[in-house]
Amino acid sequence: MTSPLKIAVIGAGIVGVSTALWLRRDGHDVTVFDRIEPGDPAQTSYGNAGLLARAAIVPVPTPGIIKSVPKMLFDADGPLFLRWRYLPKLLPWLVPFLRGSDAATVKRTASALSDILADSVDQHRSIARDTEAERFIETGRYTYLYKDRAAFDKDAFGFGIRAEHGFTWDELDHGALREIDPHLGPDYGFGAALHDHGWISDPGGYVAALFGAYRGLGGQFIKAEVDDIRGGEGQSEVRAGGEAHSFDRVVLASGAWSRQLAERLGHHVNLETERGYHVMMREPSVRPPNPYMIADAKFALTPMAQGVRAAGLVEFGGLKAPPSEAPIALFRRALGRVYPGIEWDSETTWMGHRPSTADSLPLIGESTKARGVYFAFGAQHIGLTSGPKTGRLIADMIGGRRTNLDLSPFRTDRFDGD
Hints:
This protein is α/β, with parallel strands linked by helices. It is 31% helix and 28% strand. The strands form three sheets. Strands 3, 4, 5, 6, 7, 13, 14, 15, 16 and 17 form a ten-stranded mixed beta sheet that branches. A six-stranded mixed beta sheet has the order 8-2-1-12-19-18, with helices on both faces.
């Protein structure tokens, strides 16, 4: 390992907090910057589906998606939403995103994602061990629900890729599903229950607990928005709240807000925000026995400490537009199909920003434009799942340890020539 370094981590979501905790455990002097407290509802890491979805190696764009987009956009029960005035800004990202849906590209992407996701449950156990965060980790099956066997067969390409990477599942007909979950409605007659998965019972509390462990080790926190970063041999600078701070290394892990800071360093980063939503149902009359992915509506239903959370969907509308009502309405309609007659005492709704690259892969590694600055962002739908592993990889790089992974698919300069 290198001698102790003075390191800034920009971003206090799951990736930033994980990175900071691993670095502090290595003995480095670490300061986290964010305008939002870790675990706060304004953090993207607060509102996710809570899944440790280690089999989520298949990217969103797969063969046939281009033909499916119009139906998803114009169907009232479709899982895709678009603020049409945003379309011109979206196109430079959307075109290459959809172009990457051919079978060969999808398989390469899945192979790269498998390297950072396959052991994710163990990675979460490792970072949370002997901390308050341990109590939030649940393990079990993760079940995809389909209308029938024919609907599942339409996903054969994606499940075939998962099988190639060693993932296994049980196939359950409606009778088997009802034995496990008697409240399940008749609209879902087939399930694929993936083995050895996990979920977080309170994502906000979990990130806050990991941050508490970091603070307990003497880690520092500056609550301020970072305006600029500058890298250089041996010395980097972070400007936040009108003040300049010097560091030996800087880690950029601010999710969908990372793009503008990376571009200040001279990089081009083809990254968009996929706006995701959730409804948190408190004191529900029904709880799923384990997380479900509602395959036709493209959202997860997760049992949590405060109730049941429906989370997911995709809306394109940028970082500044307010939340929309249509995704929340879709959740409510779809919940009635999963659990007819479900009721709950109260609810909260939420919208957040997934940082999604045009090739569905995060940026992990040292900047080629600014030595001493490391990127750890762009994890789209798998930020919670991959956070501890990403943080460990960055800590290994800074500490001079071999990662034993091919990290070239995640290189930081891969969009610079676009």
